[in-house]
Amino acid sequence: MWGACMHAVLKHLGPGIYEYGWNLNLEIPREDILGAISGVTIKTARPITVHAVDFQKWRSFEEYWADTSNNTRRNAKRAEAGSFKIVTRANSRGLLHLGAVVRLRASMYERKGIKFHQFRALMSYVVDHLIAADYRITAIASDGTRPLAAFTGCEFGSHTYYLAGGSQSNNNGIAWYLQKVMLQRAWNRTDGKAKFVMGHVDYATHNEDTGGGLLRARRAINVSEYATSIVTFVYKEDSSEQT
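RESULT FIELD:
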């Protein structure tokens, strides 16, 4: 019924240029169904792949974690032996963490040789956080004197969405341990019946050599791939639809 529902929505909204899709959307590509709707002309359809951990593939979090890469588990275990604390904030309280998130993200990108505009990123994170504060979650791991790793994301419905993170160099595995903590939080919140959405990749343009090891890091925690697309299209009612 998706096509019929979208047709009804378009008739209600009226003629215009629309975009459907999102870079964290787990839906199937919709361009074929959209193109079959009366009055719709597809302009562009950009295929992307979304990566998410589907917890339902494992019977317990321990079984899932044992199935991650040896390097991931080794780094997280090394961190557990150290002295640090993790502070998690939900809702608007997470705004207090965003400065540290940006600084740690900048540090990570600097190591990888990727440009990062701190002020622009901070403004974007603040606005996004204020718009949907009820769904936001942040976490900072620190050694008591300075932040070492950060996470910010959304808990929407049953799924958890990773939005941004970063870490200091030589954090002794704390970044991986923080990732484990957030994954386990997502598992516990839904009893393993949800997905942890890590982000998207455009295989047509992605270069792993200059992409900071994005795919390697995601595959280390056993993401699944979901093919989707972002579609722009024109809708124009024809005379047979008008009432």
